[in-house]
TrEMBL record:
It comes from Actinoplanes aureus. The chain crosses the membrane at residues 12-37, 57-76, 83-101, 107-131. It comes from the Bacteria. This is Uncharacterized protein. Keywords: Membrane, Transmembrane, Transmembrane helix.
Length: 140
């Protein structure tokens, strides 16, 4: 990727700060809206296997919300690195606080690490793809 993509094409420093804080806040809001209210595990009556606390539709909706948030921030010319970091760290932090408060096995740390690596990887891939597509569109 050329350095021209990362040059002066981003907004001012104050815009970046406000934008990154907004991304972090909206990441927290996405967690609360989709996942924060559901604390109940579900037990399959035929097998007795517990699952949860989240349903597939909740996780899918949350992931889609975070994707829209990231793409919106990139379209507003926020820095992809700081935007990805803000989204990843804020969402992982709120998930970790919730998981730690109700966890008895101590495995929430593994979940935190998996979430951190997964979100960081996903936001990096989406950011790079977005930047390439934007650069390709400009070169036409």
């Amino acid at each position: 990727m050329s350095s021209a993509v990362f040059s002066s094409r981003y907004r001012s420093y104050s815009w970046q700060v406000v934008g990154v804080v907004a991304v972090a806040g909206l990441s927290l809001l996405a967690w609360f809206a989709w996942l924060g209210w559901d604390q109940e595990y579900h037990v399959d009556p035929s097998t007795g296997v517990a699952s949860g606390p989240y349903e597939v539709w909740q996780v899918a909706g949350c992931a889609l919300s975070l994707l829209v948030l990231l793409l919106g921030a990139l379209m507003l010319r926020l820095s992809p690195v700081s935007t990805s970091a803000a989204l990843t760290l804020a969402f992982t932090a709120v998930w970790t606080v919730d998981a730690a408060s109700s966890e008895t096995t101590g495995l929430y740390g593994v979940g935190t690490l998996m979430l951190l690596v997964g979100l960081a990887s996903a936001t990096a891939v989406v950011s790079v793809a977005f930047l390439h597509l934007r650069a390709a569109a400009r070169s036409r």
